[in-house]
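Q: I have two molecules that I believe assemble together. Could you output C-alpha cells for the complex as a whole instead of separate predictions?
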Amino acid sequence: MPLAYIYDAVRTPRSRGKAGVGSLYGVKPINLLAELLKGLESRNQLDTSQVDDVLMGCVTPVGEQGSNIAKSAVIHAGWDESVPGFQLDRFCASGLEAVNTAAAKVASGMDDLIVAGGVESMSRVPMGSNGGPFLSDPEYIANNLSVPQGIGADLIATIEGYSREQLDSYALQSQQRATHARDSGWFDGSVIAVTDTIGGTILQRDDFIKPDTSLEGLGALRAAFAALGNYGFDDMALRKYPHVETIHHVHTAGNSSGVVDGASAILIGNQAIGKDLNLTPRGRIIATAVVANDPIIMLTGPGPAAKKCLSKAGLSIEDIDLWEINEAFASVALRFMKDLDISPDITNVNGGAIAMGHPLGATGGCLVSIMLDELERRNQKRGLIALCVGGGMGIATIIERD
Amino acid sequence: MLKTDTLTMPSFGYQQDSNGIVTVTMDMDGPINCMNLAFIPMLANTVEKLSTETGLTGVIIASAKTTFFAGGDLNWLRSVEREDAPEFMAHVESMKACFRRLEKLPVPVVAAINGTALGGGFEICLACNYRVAWQDPSVKLGLPEASLGLLPGGGGTVRMTHLLGLEKALPLLTRGQQMTPQKALNAGLVNALVEHQTDLIEHAKNWILDHKNDPASAQQPWDIKAHTIPGGNAHHPSMASKIAVSSAQIQQKTRGLLPAPEMILDIMVEAARLDFDTAQTIETAKFVELVTGPVAKNIITAMFFNMNQVKGGHKRPQGFPRHHVKRLGIIGAGMMGQGIAYSAAMAGIQVHLKDTDLKSAEEGIVYSQKLLQKKLDRGRIDSHKMQQVLALIHPTDTTKDLKGCDLIIEAVFEDKELKHQVLQEHEDLTNENGFWGTNTSTLPINVLAQNATNKQSFIGLHFFSPVDKMPLLEIICGEHTDDATLAKAFDFAKQINKLPIVVNDSLGFYTSRTIGTKMDEALQMVAEGLDPVLVDNLGKAVGFPVGMLTLLDQLKLGLPLLINDTQVSMGLKDPHQHETPEGMAMLRELVEQHDRQGRINDKGFYTYDDHQKHIWPGLKKWLKPEHSIPHQDIKDRLLFRPVIETLRCLEENVLTNVADANIASILGIGAPLWTGGYAQFVNTYGLTEFIVRCDTLAQAYGARFNAPDIVYQYEKLGKTFV
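A: Yes, here they are, computed for all two components at once.
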C-alpha cells in the first residue's frame, strides 16, 4: 500500500473573527483560501495539473462560503482547470477530516496528490448562520436534549472537578506558549502572509494572541454559558447526568477558543509523485480515526479517538513524542490529558486555540502544520493531533517523521 | 341539486338580509356549541351553502348560546384511541378544510363574539377576517388547549403564528392563556369591542358595508402574497437562537414530561417555514398524536372531568339545605389558623381568631395584612376591599367571643391532649345548627372526637399550607360524623373557594398517609447505598416539583420522625412494622446525631450557603459506589409508592372515589400533572402492565410494591379506575 506523505503544510495567520475589528475581516473567504493555494503553489513550484483533488473543510458553508468554496477557490487561484474541489463539513474536525480523507485516498492508491485543509471567515459568515437541527429544530432539541457545546464544556469541568482557576491557569499557559513560539519565529516557516491584490501585507503573523494575559484579567471575565444554562439547557443536560448536582459555569471567553478567521492547506501525495515533482517529504500520515459518544456532553471524543488511532497504528501512548489537542475549551484539553495520562509538557507545546483562535473548518490543517514544524524543530518522530467535534464526535491523526 | 340537498341536511341558522349579508347562527342541540361529530356536517353544509350563495356581500358568524362556542368536545377527544387515529385525523382535516373555505370566501367574514370563545371556539373566530367581541370581562377568549395537555388543532396554532409572530404567540399558546376581551384587543386577537351585546350584529354589518370596496378585508393576512410573519420567518438567522432558547425554556418547565408545549413550538416553527396549508396538516397530525396519547387523556380526565366533579361537590350528601357560615371561630392563631382566617375573611365571613393571649391572636391579622398588601400592590384589590377584609377578622383571647359561631375550627398544635382540652372548653359555643372542625394532618378524627358531646357534628378539616395558596380541603369523616355535618363542611369549602374531597378516617387520612411514601422510599434508597444526588434528581425527572431529599430539607427532617413517633406513642402504629426501616434509621441518625434539620438550620441532606447547596459529605457513610440499580427502577420506586398507597386507600374505602384521589394527589401532594393523578396513572399505564411492573419491583425491593388486590380485581373485570 502506498504511504501518504506530507509534502508541505501552510496556513494563514489568524486574526479576530469579528466584523469591523479583525485584521482579516476585509478579506473575502474565497481570497483567503485562493491566496493560500497560490502561496502553496509558488513555494513548491507546483504543477497544479498534477493535483488530483482539493478537499476543504468549512463549517459554515453558506453565503460567501457556500456552494463548494473549495472548487471556487481552485478556480480563483488560477490553478489548472483539471483540478476538482470538494467542500466538506464534519464540524470542528472538518480541516483534519479533509487531511485524513486525502491521506486515505492517497494510501489506497485511488489518488496521487491532494491538497487538503479548510477555510473559515467567522467575521464574515458568523458561526451558526447555516442553521441545522441541533439548535433550530424544536422537535430535535426536545427529543435529543440538544444543548450548546459550552454547556458540555462546563459539564466536563463539573464532573472532573476542574476549578475556574485551573482552567484560567491552563489558558494563561496557552497564551504564554503561543506568544513565545510566535515571537521566536517558530510559526514563520508555515504561515503565509495575507496580502491585498497589489501585494501589500494585510497580516504577517497571528495577531489574536494576547501576550499580556494575566490570571487576574482572566479571573475577571464573566462565565460565558451561565445565562444559556439558566434558560433551561443545564436542566436538559442534567437529565442525562442525574448524578451531577449542578453545572458549574467556569468557561469564559478567556479559557475557550477564540473566534478567528483563517485558512490552511496541506499537500499530501504518494512517494512516486513526490519524486516526479521534485518534492521532499516532511512526514507521513500513518493512522486516522473518528469516533462518537454522548452528544450532550459532546466534547469527550478526543480521548477515545486518540486511543482508536493508536490502536490502528499499532502504537502505544509512549510512542508519541508530541500531542496536539484542539483547545476548543480548556476543560477539553485537561480531560484529554487525563484520559491518556499524558504530560502537559509535551501537549500543545506552542499553545493552542485559546491563544491563537479556532477558525472552525481550517483548524485541523493549522494543527498539522504546527505539529510538523515542532517535530522538525525538535527533531522528533511522532505526533498525534486530536479535536473534539460537535455531535459528540472525536477525531485523531498520527503523523510520523523518519 | 346540491343546494336542495343541503337544505334538508343539518345546518346552522342562516339568514340573508337585504344587503346580501348572511348571518350564520350556531345553535347546536343541547346547552352549548362544541366541536364534535355533529358539528362537522353542520359546518360543512353551511360553508357549502355560503359558497354558492347569490348576491352574498358578507358573512357574520354568531351564536345563539350564552357562550359563543365551547371548544372541542372533551368526551369525544377522550374516547379516541391510537387505532382510531386515521379516521379521527380525517374528521379534523375535513373540519379544517371548511374553516379554510370560510376564510377564503370572496366576501368579508366577521365573528360576532357574544360570549366566551375558548379553544375550538376561538379557532372559528381566527378563521374569520374580522373579530368583534362583547367587551364584558366575563367573556373569556383564547386557546387554553395546552392546559389540558393538548394543542390548538383546529388551525389555531398556525393562524396565531401568522397573526402575531412566533415570539408573541408562543407564550399565549404554551401557557394556554385565557383573556378578557380588552386583553385580547390589546394583544391583537380581536379587532373591536362593543359595549352592549345587542350591538354586535349591527357593528358587524356596518363593518362589512364600510369595507364593501376593500378586497383586502375579505382576505386573511396569510393569503396575501406580500404577507410576512411578524418577527420574520424561521429561516432568519436571528430566529435560530430564539428557537433554541424557547426550546430550553419549555424543557425547563416540562422536563420532557408534557409533550404539548414542545409540539406547539415545533408546529409554529414549521408554520414559519412552510406554506400555510402544509403547516395546517402538520398541526393536525401533531394534534392527533396528542389526543391519542396517554398524557392528554390523563390531564383531561383529572383537570377537566374530575375537577368538575370535585368543584361541583359531587360527594356532598343530598337533601340538606345549603349551610352558610356567617361567623367562624378559629382557635389557634398559628400558621394554619392565620391562613384559614384570611381565606374565610376573603369570602366575607366574620372571623373570631382566638389564641391564648391577645398578642398572638393579633399576629393573625398581620399575616392577612401582608397578603392583602401584596394584592393591593399588584392592583388585584383596592384599599377599600383590603380594609373590608381586615375588619372581618377579630383577634381575641376570650372564650365567650366565640359564642354562637356557625363553625369553630380548632387549629392548635398536633397534640391529642391539647386538642381534647380545646374541644372541652369550646364545644358548646357553636350555635345549635353549627359544627366543629378540627384541622389536623395526622391525628385520627375518631381519637380526637372521643370526648366530644356531639360526635355527629365533629369533622376533620385538613387544610394545606400555605392555606391562601393551596386550593384543596380534605374533609375527614369520623365514624360518628353525620351526613348533615358533612354537607355543611362541603358548603363551607365552597364558601371559602376550596376544592373539597372527602375521606374516611385512617391513619394519615389520604394525603398525609400518601405524601410520605415517596420520601420514605428515597430515604430507603439512600440508606441502601445509592447516590443521594441521583435519587434526588430522579425525583425531579419523575415530575415531582422538587427531589425528595430537597423536599425533606424544606419540610424539616425531623417531621417524619415526629409524626411516626407520635403515632407510635399513641399506640396507633407498630414501631417494628415500618416498610422502610433502614431509611428511617438513617433519617433518625441524621437528625439526632448530626443535627441535620434541613433548611431551617442550613443543614439537611444538603448544606446551604450563599444560595448554593451541596450534598452533605456525611452521607458518604451510606454510599456504596458498587451498588447501582437502573434509573428507571429509582424513578418507579418513587412514583409507584404513592400510587400503590392511593390504590390501598381506594381498596380500604378511605378514598371513596377516583376523582377525589386524582384531584387530591395533584393539588395536595405533588402528583405530577402528566399522571392525571395517582389513580388515573394506572389506567393509561395499563392495569396488566402495572401488575407486572409491581411484581418485578416487589421481587427486587420488597413486598411494599405488591399491587393491591383491587388492581387484580379490576384487571380481571376489565375495569379501569374511573
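A: One point stands out. The two ends of chain A are 18 Å apart (CA to CA).
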